[in-house]
């Protein structure tokens, strides 16, 4: 391992890219501790500790909510905007054509995604202010209209600042920027979580801690197994005779990863699974009794462990298929193979190759989606079985941390490989 680190450090470009990304992550954590002025932090933390949904959001955001930080929304609005545009691309012909334009089309969609992030951040910041004002102990005092607008604009600017930082990180090819920001937020919360666990250690709960540790190990092993697993589709290239030279005739393969979607399905699933409960929070104290009943019913439903685990599993499973359909294009692969004189043994080029690739990917994806869903809910199942409220989002956090770490390591290794080719 140390030899690998030394070789990475020896390459100037890779070293500079990593240091640049680390500097941005340090700035991210510094900004996370800059609170909006006039917030009663003690009352806010008490309110978050007594609210399970907001407590989960606080853990997922890396503690930015408990400080009422200027980046308290994190990259949540950007993720929501990405989900909306990826869904629209499947039903709006113009967006679908834009996706097929390659890099230029993707840049346009990214631009639209950033534009939509702004109004979403404004709406979410206003909703968060109204929600926190429902607490028994005041969190925000002297809320004049001017102050509300100022807070909303500040939080929205903080979100767009993170989006900008995420794009800068992605440009350095040291991992996905948005995923790394979420990764940094989760990792930063680990020391505090471990400290709380040791301070509240109860010897009678030793069996519970052992089971949680075993679930964590199984999650790590499962994520690595899925991320590294792939099926190689054999490809042969026809021989071409040009004068006295023979070209082609070689054999290769197409690597199909078991989990082509990476960590994106988990991030999308967490965003959606928390959304109904967040909306219900606003109507718990509504004037209309029927609205209060619906809000309380929604909260009770999502606090029901069997329902929550089932919904979480289904969302992870569905988003794995959905995101794979977005990034995997069997038609393009089949066309490229045919142009290069390649073919899959036993499969005719063209439409039959496209159908074969699509069918094979669906079968592989079934295994990846099932494993990813089971790993995501494994710690939740252990928690439900033991009746413990500890590590409420531990499985999701661990899943994201391991998957992002693997993706980042692969991108760094790819940069090193490119430098080796340049030297040759």
UniProtKB/TrEMBL annotation:
Domain of life: Bacteria
Pfam families xrefs: SecY
Signal peptide segment: none
Subcellular location(s) of the protein: Cell membrane; Membrane
Keywords: Cell membrane, Membrane, Protein transport, Translocation, Transmembrane, Transmembrane helix, Transport
Ranges that cross the membrane: 70-92, 112-132, 144-165, 177-194, 206-226, 263-284, 310-329, 364-382, 388-406
Gene Ontology BP terms: intracellular protein transmembrane transport; protein targeting; protein transport by the Sec complex
GO cellular component: plasma membrane
InterPro entries hit by this protein: SecY (IPR026593), SecY/SEC61-alpha (IPR002208), SecY_CS (IPR030659), SecY_dom_sf (IPR023201)
Topology in membrane: Multi-pass membrane protein
Entry similarity comment: Belongs to the SecY/SEC61-alpha family.
HAMAP family: SecY (MF_01465)
Subunit structure: Component of the Sec protein translocase complex. Heterotrimer consisting of SecY, SecE and SecG subunits. The heterotrimers can form oligomers, although 1 heterotrimer is thought to be able to translocate proteins. Interacts with the ribosome. Interacts with SecDF, and other proteins may be involved. Interacts with SecA.
Purpose: The central subunit of the protein translocation channel SecYEG. Consists of two halves formed by TMs 1-5 and 6-10. These two domains form a lateral gate at the front which open onto the bilayer between TMs 2 and 7, and are clamped together by SecE at the back. The channel is closed by both a pore ring composed of hydrophobic SecY resides and a short helix (helix 2A) on the extracellular side of the membrane which forms a plug. The plug probably moves laterally to allow the channel to open. The ring and the pore may move independently.
Protein name: Protein translocase subunit SecY
Lineage of origin: Bacteria, Candidatus Magasanikiibacteriota
